[in-house]
Amino acid sequence: MTEFPTIYSITEDELDLNDLLEQITLPSTGAACFFTGMVRGETNKDGLPPQTEYLEYEAYIPMAEAKMEQVAEEIRERWPAVEGITIVQRIGRLYPLTPTVLIACTAAHRDTGVFEAARYGIDRLKEIVPIWKKEVGTDDETWIEGEYSPKPGE
Amino acid sequence: MNKISVLFFATMRDHIGQKSISLDVPDKTNVQGLKSVLAEKYPNASGALEATLVSINREYAFPEDNIPDGAEVAMFPHVSGG
Question: Domain coordinates of chain A in residue numbers?
C-alpha cells in the first residue's frame, strides 16, 4: 500500500501553493481541497483596527508542529479516504494579501470527505495549535486571542 | 527540588517581561502551585497567570497536573493561528 504523505510545518518562508499541492498529489489522486487564509487589509469589526498594516505571527514551534501532526492524525481517523494532508503556517511579519496558512487534503474523488477534512483541519488549527498573531494598525496594535480551551488529551 | 524551565509567549511574554526563565520548584509542585510561585515573583502578571493556558513538555496541562523534574513548561494565551 502506498504511504500517504503528511506535511506539517511552521515556516518563515513564502507559501508555495503549487509546490505544496504537488507534494500531496499521488497517481491515485483525483481531487484536492485547499483552504488558505491571508492577511485582511480592511476589517469592519468592533475592537479591531479597520486598517491593518501587518500581522505579526509567532509560534511555540516544537509544540505547534506536534499539534499539527495530531490534527492530521485526527483527519485520518475521521476521513480514511483522504490521501495527502498538508498543514503549514507561515509566521513573522505578514502584510495584507499574503497567504498565511494552508490546509490541503487530497483524495481519489471529491465525494470522499476532502472538503470537510480541510474545514476540520483549519478549525482544529485555530483551537489547539499554539500560534498567536498581533494586529498592527496605523496607530495601534492588538493581540488577537482565540476562545477555545483545550481539554485533557488534546 | 525540581529544575524546570518556563517559556512565555505572546501576551504572557509581555506581562512577565521575559521569554523564558529557569526555576527550582519543590517536588510535586503542580500547575496551580507554579502559577502561585510566579504570581509572587511577578505581581503585575497575577491576573494574566490566572487565565493562562499551560503546557508541560508540549502537551496541554491542567491545574492539578504535577510538573516533573526537567520539564519544559510554557504559558500562553488562547491560540489564534490561521
Answer: 6-144
Shortest Cα distance, chain A CAs vs residue B62, angstroms: 7
Domains contained in chain B, CATH given: 2-76 (3.10.20.30)
- Name the phi and psi angles at B31, rounded to 5: -60, -45
Residues of chain B with pLDDT under 70: none
Amino acid at A24: I
A11 touches chain B (CB under 8 A): no
CB contact under 8 A, B76 and A132: yes
Q: Would strands A141-144 and A85-90 be described as parallel, antiparallel, or unpaired?
A: unpaired
Question: Which residue has 488549527 as its cell numbers?
Answer: A125
DSSP string for A60-91? -HHHHHHHHHHHHHHHHHH-TT---EEEEEE-
Smallest CA–CA separation between A142 and chain B, in Å?
10
pLDDT in tens, A97-122: 999 999 999 999 999 999 999 999 99
**Nearest residue, CB atoms, A101 vs list B53, B77, B82:** B82
pLDDT in tens, A26-85: 999 999 999 999 999 988 777 766 789 999 999 999 999 999 999 999 999 999 999 999
Domain A6-144 has CATH 3.40.640.10: no
Provide the pLDDT for residue A2: 60
